[in-house]
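Case study 2.
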Amino acid sequence: MPFTEINSKMVEATVVPGQKLYSQRGAMLAYRGEVTFTPNIQGGQGGVMSMIGRRVANEATPLMTVEGQGTVMFGHGGHHIQVISLAGDTLYVEADRLLAFDGSLQQGTMFMGSQGGVMGMVRGQVTGQGLFTTTLKGHGAVAVMAHGGVVELPITPQAPVHVDPQAYVAHHGDVRNKLSAALGWREMVGRGSGEAFQLELSGSGAVYVQASEEKL
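Prediction:
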């Protein structure tokens, strides 16, 4: 894993020759060694003009390709940072939550409707994430941002997890999601307001939940 957590809002990445990292533009705080930072409008591996490169910061700001030899400290906006290690599975996360990640990970996008059908699309509207989400697949590490800290909740076939959609950050593993209406759920149990929805995640994997309903 190339990331070391300095504190809850800063991570340090080890950069070695022949391997790339990608980060959000403006996320570099300090670095040591011979390290270069190059704008990358294609968002790394995953095809020409991948959704990652176009969607970070309203499609105007590219990712930075980080190469060389040394260490780099990352942080952004005072957001809390969670380092997630992938061992061949897929992480589903919004592009604007990505702080930095291994260049070896394969990147792509998923239409929200493909997980949960029409309700998958409704989930995109409820969470403010839109109809697409970013995927990162392979072996490596990802540093994601959230408000108020993050907790990792395991998901097992025997124990699905129900999450306030606006507190959802990311998930990985063989997980299915379903958004369902639950009259009074937000008002009585959750932290939100307005329409009452809950996001049910089932299967095998983990979901990351932030201690806030604020969007990045």
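The first helix runs from residue 51 to 55.
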